[in-house]
Structures are given as C-alpha cells and as structure tokens.
Amino acid sequence: MKDRGDIVGALLENRIRYIQKAGPGSAEEGIRKQTNWLNNALKREEDKIARKFRSAARRAIGGLV
Question: Bridge partners of 10?
C-alpha cells in the first residue's frame, strides 16, 4: 500500500517486527522520548515566537521615540 509515495505496508511490517524483537518496556521508552522531543520542540517554537515579538516591539517603540 502506498501513501504519498511511501510504501506504508512494508513500513508497518518493519515496525511490527522491530517491536516484536525489542525488549519489554521499549514502547514506554519510545513514547517517553517522543513526548520529551515534542515538549522541547514546543518550547523552541515558543521561544522563537517570543524573540520575534520582542524584535517587532523594539522596532515599533524605536519608531515612536
């Protein structure tokens, strides 16, 4: 089965084989690492937005002075 050019069936089968061979608790570890990654990605995006806002605010205030 293909989805956007990727072969989804083979990918799913490979994941199932990996999970079968992985040790107990590996699913929890994977979920924990993915959750940490997503939290860090969210923090990076929040920091990026805050930097852009501060920069725009400085420019706006500088134009008023």
Answer: none
Question: What is the tens place of the pLDDT at every residue in 3-31?
Answer: 566 655 565 666 666 766 777 777 788 78
Question: Exposed (0-12), middle (13-18) or buried (19+): which is 15, by Cβ within 10 Å?
Answer: exposed
Of the pLDDT bands very low, low, confident and very high (cuts 50, 70, 90), residue 41 is very high
The 3-state secondary structure of the chain reads CEECCEEHHHHHHHHHHHHHHCCCCHHHHHHHHHHHHHHHHHHHHHHHHHHHHHHHHHHHHHHHC
CA dist., res. 1 & res. 56, Å (int)? 48
Phi, psi dihedrals of residue 31, rounded to the nearest 5°: -65, -40
